[in-house]
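Reposting from the mailing list since nobody answered there.

I have sequence plus structure tokens for a pair of proteins and want to know whether others read the tokens the same way I do. The first protein:
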Amino acid sequence: MKRFFRSAFGIAVLGCLVLAGWAVWSAGVFDGPVARQLRTASVYAAPGVAIDRPAAERVIGNRRLVVGFLAPGADLSDACDSLGGAVDGTLAVMLSRDGDDFEKYGCSRLPGSDDENFGKAFVAETMIGNGIDAFADRPVDALKVLVVNYDLLVHSGAIPDGGRTVSPSLPRYLVAAAAVVAVVLGSLALYLAARRTARTALARQERRDAEADARTELSAAAAVLAQEIIDLDKRYAREKSASKFGRGYRSLVSDYALLLPDLGRETPELRARVEKLLTRARKLGAQVP
């Protein structure tokens, strides 16, 4: 496994997986129900909470304000923490019914709320819920009070002016899906390319091995031919050079001398020449003195 991830292919696959994971995570696939709803809407209503959501959405409009109506007794702080980056750039307000009042919790996701604008964020979180308790049984009217408070905070400079830009979830999931598909197709392409390269390298190696084997066989055949000529030379020294054997031996040696410069390479023609000379040498050796 370590060897795989140290290779170029493994590093590429790992990089694609990281990008795909980031795309899936940023698309909100791990969001909780509150964050999932508020990522593309201004109002969340928990199951069992009666509210006219279309009317509530119209009251808030495109303000940088998101409101969650949670079930009585819900942990509002945890709900704010679960929003993550789903409501970046907004002022979030979590509400739950507490008898005849609202339990309120504000959490600012406005720019600089943790740094230079920390004081303004604290003021906005504290004041945004003023006056809504009188409308605990009328959530849409409570939203109207929240909107009035929001606009006052904008005029005071505690909240930056401007509308909220909502990125629809479908394109984000499409981007995530495209990233996953790119990982799969990219990995497949790299795998196929690696296999093709491996096959090419293996074929080249097999060809080189075959050529080396052929050269070895040729060298062995040439060595046998040389030994045959050496053995025939002893007989040639005893017989007359004008004899049939002598003439055949001289012709064989002459052809062998012409063969020597070509022994550095291996071709089918050269192998045939060696075999032919070896046959002639053996025939000469078989002649009766």
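The second protein, same order (residues first, tokens after):
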Amino acid sequence: MRIEIDGLSKRYQRHAPPALDGLDLSVPTGMFGLLGANGAGKTTLMRILAGIVRPTTGRVTVGGHDLATAAGRTAVQRELGYLPQDLGVYPDLTARQFLDYVALLKGLDDRTARRRRVGELLEVVALTEHADRRLRGFSGGMRQRVGIAQALLADPQLLIVDEPTAGLDPEERIRFRTLLSQFAGRRTVLLSTHIVDDIAQTCREVAVLAKGRLIFRGTTAELIRRAEGRVWSLVTDGPPPAEGTIVSALPQEHGVRYRIVAPQAPAPEAARVEPGLEDGYLAVTAR
């Protein structure tokens, strides 16, 4: 389902800065990444697309349906799977009971078909052996897998996930990213995150938000190229460089090796190095 966003703005309070400010964005079918720091406007955009929040101005169409109309919102919500940043669960329910309950809310009335679908998704997210444990005993990663299962119950054509790997350990993050990539196919998966590596490992196309505005839209390769000639390596036993943005600081035998994004060399002895996606992201946000 293609998403078209034109002149989208959202202001929660009359005199407060806008959460979104004149956003224009086109999202194609497939896996698409949305990057930005906390407060960039990502969650507001996700909630507007999910029909939870209404924009102040602008137009959004999803699969040709206009979200400004009640009929359009209803049509999109029938095709939508949504995993918010903080999914509320009932801790005294088992994973199977919780998914069965959500399936009922989504209109899966046939008991046999509903139980079959719940069982299929428990297997997809590798929770079959934990299906009858209460959710209160689940780890953060296991709860996120329950979250993705509930989002997939109605076999949605659009899946929106907001900061899905925050707080997960490395193994769970990899498992979760793989699940999202496998689901994409001919569907649209919108992955909103501030973790650059999640985008690097799953998305070919990405948009970057800052203070409610779109500051980059393109492929991950194009985002990397934005940092060409601007990434430096410097080893020093003195104070850290004052110019540029420090990406990493790795202790060495005789000092610290800094990786820095800056328009010019931060010190005469700094050496230019090849950029990565995180460097590209820092380069566009610094500008």
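Reply #1 (J.P.):
I read it the same way you do. The mean pLDDT is 92.
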